[in-house]
Every structure is written in C-alpha cells, then in structure tokens.
Amino acid sequence: MGSGIAQVAAGAGHPVTLVDSRAGAADEAVSRIAAALDRLVARGRLGREEADAAVGRVTPHTTADMTTVPPVGLVIEAVVEHADVKRAIFRQLEAGQPATTVLATNTSSIDIDAITGDATTGHDAASHGGHSPAMARPGRVVGLHFFNPVPVMRLVEVIAGSASDPAVLDDVTALMRSWGKTPVRCTSTPGFIVNRVARPFYGEAQRMVAEGIADPATVDLALRGAGFRMGPFELTDLIGQDVNLAVGESVWHQTQEDPRYEPTDWQRDLVRSGRLGRKTGRGVFTYDGEDPNVPTDARPDEELAGRLVGGPLATDPVARTLAMLVNEGVDLVHRGEASAEDVDTAMRLGTNYPQGPFDWLAEIGADTVRRQLEELDHLYPGGRYRPSEGL
After folding, report:
1. DSSP structure string for 150-194
2. How far is CA 363 from the centre of its chain?
3. What are the tens digits of pLDDT across the range 157-199?
4. CA–CA separation, 363 vs 375, rounded Å?
5. DSSP string of 327-386?
6. Would the pLDDT of 268 be above 70?
7. Residue 121: its pLDDT value, please?
8. At a CB cut-off of 8 Å and minimum separation 6, what does 360 contact?
9. Does the residue 245 lie in any domain?
10. Residue 339 and residue 157 in contact, taking contact as beta carbons nearer than 8 Å
11. Does 35 share its domain with 85?
C-alpha cells in the first residue's frame, strides 16, 4: 500500500519521502515503483522521461523514529492495522512535523478518534488500550483509505474524525482529485463506507451455505448472474479469509457487537483450520491445479442456482443479499455518516459492484425491501435483519 501511494503521489509531481523502519524496505519499495513504471512505459501508457522523473522524486528513508522524518505537507501512514502502533507513530509525527502538516492514516477500519485520542468524544488512548495522551492538534488528522492496487483503483475514502478540520478535509479531497482519484467522504463510522456496507455480501452467502441451502460454488454463480463480477466465496478466497474475517470482527466489535455484523462461525472455522484462500492453496475452494488462481473443485449446480433465484426469499441468494446491502447503505445515510451519492460511488468503485445500494433501492422500492427484511427478521430473529429507520 505504501509504495503504491508513493507511486501515485510521485506521478502527480510531488517529491515523496518513502519511510520504513526495516533496513532496505524503503529501497525495495522504490525498486518496485520503478519496475511498475517500466511496465507502463513498455505498454506505451507512460513516457520514459515521465517515468524516470517520477522515480527521481521518491527518496527512501529508513527510521523507526518518526520524529526524524523530514518536514512535509502531507504524511500518509500505511502501517499494520493496530491502533496502538498507529497512535505511537502519530504522536511522533505530531512532535516532528510542522504544525501545518496534514497527518493522514490509510486505515481500513480503525476509528480516527482512537488514533488521535480525541478526549472530546471519550476516545482517549486509555480506553483503547494505550497510554499516549490525546494529540494536541487532532484537527489536522484525517483518514485517506486507498484501495489495492493503489495505482489502478480510483476510489479513496476521505474519513473525518470528530475533530478533523473541515478545511483540511476539503483540501485533501481536492488533492485526491488532482491525483486522478475519486474521493468519497464519510465520518469515522466502523468500516467507513465500503467495509461497512459490504459485510452482508459475505455474511449472507456464508449463512446460506451453513444452513445447507446451497454449496459455495452455486451461491457464487447465482450472484455473478445478478451482475457481481465475483461471487462472495471466490472473492474472500482472493482477499484472504483471515483478512476478510479480521475486518468483519473489527466492524462487529466497533458496533458494540451488533448482530447485523456478527461474523460467522463458518468463516472462523476456515481460518482456524488454515484454509485462508488462494495464498495457502485452499480456502473455500482448493487451488492445486496448473493455474494457482483457478479452483479445481468449484462445480456449481446451475439448475439449483436458477431455481433459488426468484424463489422463496429465505433461499434466494440474490434477494437476501440485495435487501441487506440496500439496508446498510440506507442506514449509513440515515445516520448522517455519508451521502447517498458517495455510498453508491464507493460500492461501485471500491468493490466493483454492478451498481450501488441506492440504485438497487430505486429498482426494488423501499416498501419491498422493508417487507423482505421483516420476513427475514421473523425467520431469523435476533436483530440482524431489522430494517433501517431510513427505509
């Protein structure tokens, strides 16, 4: 992520200091950037002089002490997803950078206030397991959540902590546009837009398989038939079952273990058994053929997939999934955490969905979605399927 962000920034004309604590890591990242730009030159998508100039703007810097990082206008942190580590880094950055420097985190799910220790909302460091005091200038701290691969993916979520300065948010939003990105804005809600709204895409499929309604390959086929580029099982095998589960657990815990977001024991069992997906050769599917990216045991039942879609709600992978995706998008906007336009943009660009939740809402209708959720809530009581007040 860090080298991808650096590549985009350097390509936009900025001098970039690329920092890592491990000896040699920053130099390796510069080499990766150079190789990536060489491939673009070979394909005729970038000029040789332009590529060489971009690489020349990147300076590697090795240190574990962020107070030694040279003064810059914007810092983008892309370290491990651990709040304590990020808090420590941001305290050092605050001490070492000028007061005008914008400090951004590339976190995919951690609360911005948990990083700044903003006492105005009760998110002090102690409540999050750390011992650092609240930052003196939390207004200059924002989230800039990029998506992999950074040079290719257009979406950037611009995240506002409770103390983030509106002018700073406007500035970084404009900067992302100047980098050729499509920024969307949201508050620091658990999972932000993409990782929050996408939870049902995985969760409904896993629950249906656990119930014995269909096998994973058949559920994937049904959802691909509805326009999704990949089914939930092949997608989580690509992401990594452990990575996908970790994000789900984070959202669940940050929402005070709301049943809407509770991860499934079905996926937890996959992770416990080491079936993490393509990277381990086995996840939901097995990857032991000539092409390690193609499963050898994904054999969908086309007749069953066709029968389930359009059938009873409880056994229809498409209807269940869309009702829940719409509910999540509506709820996010109802709480004032994002706009409907940004939710649709984020889900199309961040997850390659064929359309956004509000596009589906316009097609299906709020009354129908609400009735579907009420039916599911009756069949599976406990709160997971409660309709948003926004419906």
Report:
1. TTT--EEEEEE-TT--HHHHHHHHHHHHHTT-EEEEEES-TTTTH
2. 26
3. 999 999 999 999 999 999 999 999 999 999 999 999 999 999 9
4. 19
5. HHHHHHHHTTSS-HHHHHHHHHHHH--SS-HHHHHHHH-HHHHHHHHHHHHHHS-SSTTP
6. yes
7. 41
8. 322, 325, 326
9. yes
10. no
11. no
Domain that holds residue 29: 1-63
195, 250, 327, 388: which one is catalytic?
A: 195
| Residue 133 counted as domain residue | yes
Q: Is 49 a catalytic residue?
A: no
pLDDT at 130: 46
pLDDT for 124 equals 40
Q: Are residues 88 and 167 in the same domain?
A: yes
Same domain? For 271 and 365 the reply is yes
For strands 58-62 and 141-146, give the pairing. unpaired
Residue 129 has pLDDT above 80, yes or no: no
The phi, psi pair for 41, rounded to 5°, reads -65, -45
Identify whether 385 is part of a domain: no
Q: What is the mean pLDDT of the chain?
A: 94
For residue 105, CA distances in Å to 16, 109, 173, 268 come to 16, 10, 14, 28
If asked whether residues 263 and 371 sit together in one domain, one would say yes
52 with 70, same domain: the answer is no
58, 70: one domain: no
* 24-51 pLDDT tens trace: 999 999 999 999 999 999 999 999 999 9
Active site residue 157: yes
User: Are 296 and 287 within 8 A, CB to CB?
Assistant: yes
Is-catalytic flag, 61?
Answer: no
The reply to whether 108 belongs to the active site is yes
Domain match, 323 and 341 both: yes
The CATH number assigned to the domain holding 95 equals 3.40.50.720
Which among 77, 157, 204, 328 is annotated as catalytic?
Answer: 157
Per annotation, catalytic residue among 3, 106, 108, 244:
108
387 falls within a domain: no
pLDDT of residue 109: 85
For residue range 252-266, list pLDDT tens digits in order.
999 999 999 999 999
- SS3 category, 74: strand
- pLDDT of 322 reads 98
Which residue in 94, 145, 327, 388 is the catalytic one?
145
> Pairing relation of β-strands 74-77 and 102-105?
parallel
213 and 331: one domain? yes
